[in-house]
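2024-03-11 09:14:02 DEBUG pipeline.ingest accepted 1 chain
2024-03-11 09:14:02 DEBUG pipeline.ingest length=202
2024-03-11 09:14:03 DEBUG pipeline.predict start
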Amino acid sequence: MVDTTYIDLMKKRRSIRKIGDQLTFGTHEIADLIEKAIKESPTAFNNQSTRAMILFGQSSDKVWEITADRLKSEVPNADAYAATKAKLNAFKAGFGTILFFTDRPTIAQNEKQFALYADNFADWAEQGLGGAQLSVWTALALNQIGASNQHYNPLIDDQVKQAFDVPNGWVLRSEMPFGSIEETAAAKDYIDDDSRFKIIAD
């Protein structure tokens, strides 16, 4: 019988949107875990195009303050904005935030070096980024740390770049708030297997 230990672990990785700051791990332990998860994630041609900023304390709070301020002009309805602000405050209540980036100079270098595959490197970078995000998210879940993957980019790109001195060429792709699990996720629904998979064995 095949070992499903990893599948069981993946089932622990859920979008936890109600998080807190009550973790028993220190910032250095968590940062080391995140760094290792990203380093061991695969990328096309091993180009290691994923970048990350790991933010704690006021720096983490700043991400969600920036997002709240930026969305004021995008969500003019007061009631809708109040709901949006409450959602952002739930992320802000966590222990930290990971900002995931793609390093565009790496992609440009690959396109030049491997011209035959030039049209694919942007897509492959997204695949590598997704692998890194899943690796980090699952590693956090293994340690009973809740997280979710948010996408307020590109709305907040300029403000984030200014606030955190983001290197030139790093393009923001997602924001992952994490912290203690204050409310578990609801049961996950799955589409029918017949509409998702096709098995051919001949």
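2024-03-11 09:14:41 DEBUG pipeline.report The longest strand covers residues 170-181.
2024-03-11 09:14:41 DEBUG pipeline.predict end
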